[in-house]
């Protein structure tokens, strides 16, 4: 078995403790050999598990060996490591003591200070480079930024010791990521919308947050207190049992904590590694396959079929549409806010009222998505969804009310949630090709020549479509769910606007078992963005595809 650690130093430590073989890495330019972060610990990994976990629980496991790696360079197939990386978010109370409340705000400001200092340094370096081509550029990576900050912090921030060092590391890490995103977008290596050059952070525009990776981090035994470095214990407004019980039994280890502010409230996100059961979990109906069509009129339309019995069902889940439900109240609150004098007590009260409505919309939206995805992942063995480009859908919807309805539906929340929940429950997530016209092909209806029959309608958002072959009126959402359920057996007749038949794209499976790291693939492969309008050198510019309306 081969263990993949996060760093070469960790791999060397594991090799020394287990007597394993650290695999060779890429040779240096001068030809000298290096060592990789992979270690062959032998066939019996369980005898070395405790030693490996004492170094780090963030490792990957492969069924290969050093001999096979030397021959073909393959690590083997990845197997479950027994650990799942996840997180939980809790709302905490602001400290009652003014000094501690000021310390929390100081941490947020310290992160912005480090971010702005690093950005100013990078901009000055770019200006010097443009004025003098011979100027030696400075490093933009996190290591170079942290090294430069440690040399300059006594002058630019003589008060730096008041706060945790993690404040400055978090700000510089955010800057390094922002610069990397901008550079990749500019060179055409990053898909999606273009990313601009980072701007200086302000208290008004930049949300307060600090990420802690070292120091005293605890979820206390009273299940109502969370301890973060320097700031110490914060009282949680909700019970922390869902995390504390795993920590108390030794089944979980805290990796990091993020203290953030939103709507004037404090939140703590606890990132932790959770030991998964060796047997794994299975859904209640492992043989059933479900096709899920996300929409605006309904949150989701789910069509299922059991291959063993042939039983088919179609279920619609109501869309709460919280923004639409509170739109009138939001307008009244907005008018009330506009009549208040900024800075007055009435202005703060009116702003708080509008904020409560915003917060309620967010919570209702996420609650509906969580309930839907938990039921899908825990019930069905296979779940098929569409690879939706929600941004393109909003651009193509036309009227403002339609675009607002797409945003209110929050269809982008479902795919990432399903990606990690199917992993936990042992089910499989399948993402259908983006160009599969699920709502336009009449399910199990073909022309005499065998080509699929396309439905017709007056517009892109019609609830019912007409089959030109049979004259039947078909519900768009139910028809799309049936087509997704049978994907990819039901062949596509090509992208929207084309007539030549095409073979459906490759099916992507996410969450084929238990034990994978949550969030290791971003959205879990459930949302692959199109190429940006501005392609890189040597690449042809392609128009942004328009998503099919649900």
UniProtKB/TrEMBL annotation:
Segments for region (Disordered): 495-550
One annotated GO biological process: transposition
Alphabetized GO MF terms: DNA binding
Occurrences of domain Cas12f1-like TNB (ranges): 417-484
Pfam families noted in UniProt: Cas12f1-like_TNB, OrfB_IS605
Residues of the Probable transposase IS891/IS1136/IS1341 domain: 281-396
Keyword DNA-binding: yes
Keywords tagged on the record: DNA recombination, DNA-binding, Transposition
Biased composition (Gly residues): 512-525
InterPro entries, per the entry: Cas12f1-like_TNB, RNA-guided_DNA_endonuclease, Transposase
Family to which this protein belongs: In the C-terminal section; belongs to the transposase 35 family.
Protein known as: Transposase
């Amino acid at each position: 078995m081969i263990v993949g650690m996060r760093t070469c130093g960790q791999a060397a430590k594991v090799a020394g403790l287990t007597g394993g073989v650290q695999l060779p890495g890429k040779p240096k330019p001068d030809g000298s050999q290096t060592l990789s972060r992979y270690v062959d610990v032998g066939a019996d990994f369980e005898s070395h598990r405790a030693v490996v976990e004492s170094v780090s629980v963030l490792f990957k496991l492969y069924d290969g060996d050093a001999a096979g790696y030397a021959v073909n360079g393959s690590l083997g197939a990845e197997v479950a490591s027994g650990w799942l990386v996840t997180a939980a978010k809790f709302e905490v109370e602001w400290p009652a003591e003014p000094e501690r409340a000021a310390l929390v705000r100081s941490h947020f400001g310290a992160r912005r200070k480090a971010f702005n200092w690093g950005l100013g340094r990078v901009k000055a370096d770019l200006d010097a480079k443009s004025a003098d081509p011979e100027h030696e550029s400075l490093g933009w990576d996190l290591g170079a930024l942290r090294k430069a900050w440690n040399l300059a912090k006594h002058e630019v921030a003589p008060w730096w010791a008041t706060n945790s060092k993690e404040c400055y590391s978090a700000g510089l890490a955010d800057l390094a990521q922002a610069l990397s995103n901008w550079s990749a977008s500019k060179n055409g290596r990053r898909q999606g919308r273009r990313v601009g050059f980072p701007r200086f952070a302000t208290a008004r525009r930049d949300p307060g947050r600090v990420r802690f990776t070292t120091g005293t981090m605890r979820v206390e035994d009273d299940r109502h207190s969370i301890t973060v470095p320097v700031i110490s214990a914060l009282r949680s407004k909700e019970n922390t049992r869902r995390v504390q019980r795993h920590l108390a039994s030794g089944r979980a280890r805290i990796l990091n904590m993020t203290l953030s502010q939103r709507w004037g409230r404090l939140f703590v996100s606890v990132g932790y590694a959770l030991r998964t059961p060796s047997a794994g979990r299975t859904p209640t109906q492992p043989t059933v396959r479900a096709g899920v069509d996300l929409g605006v009129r309904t949150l989701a339309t789910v069509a299922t079929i059991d291959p063993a019995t042939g039983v088919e069902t179609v279920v619609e889940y109501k869309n709460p549409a919280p923004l639409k439900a509170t739109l009138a109240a939001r307008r009244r609150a907005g008018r009330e806010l506009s009549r208040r004098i900024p800075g007055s007590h009435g202005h703060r009260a009116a702003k708080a009222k509008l904020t409560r409505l915003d917060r309620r919309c967010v919570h209702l939206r996420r609650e509906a998505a969580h309930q839907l995805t938990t039921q899908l992942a825990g019930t069905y063995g296979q779940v098929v969804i569409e690879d939706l480009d929600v941004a393109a859908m909003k651009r193509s919807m036309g009227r403002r009310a339609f675009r607002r309805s797409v945003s209110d539906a929050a269809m982008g929340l479902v795919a990432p949630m399903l990606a990690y929940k199917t992993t936990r429950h042992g089910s499989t997530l399948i993402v259908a090709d983006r160009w599969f016209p699920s709502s336009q092909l009449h399910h199990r209806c073909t022309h005499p020549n065998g080509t699929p029959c396309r439905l017709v309608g007056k517009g892109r958002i019609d609830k019912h479509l007409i089959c030109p072959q049979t004259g039947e009126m078909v519900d768009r959402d139910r028809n799309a769910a049936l087509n997704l359920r049978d994907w990819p057996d039901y062949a596509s007749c090509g992208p929207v606007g084309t007539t030549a038949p095409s073979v459906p794209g490759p099916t992507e499976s996410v969450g084929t078992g238990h034990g994978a790291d949550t969030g290791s693939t971003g959205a879990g492969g459930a949302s692959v963005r199109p190429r940006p309008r501005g392609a890189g050198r040597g690449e042809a510019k392609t128009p942004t595809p328009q998503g099919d309306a649900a």
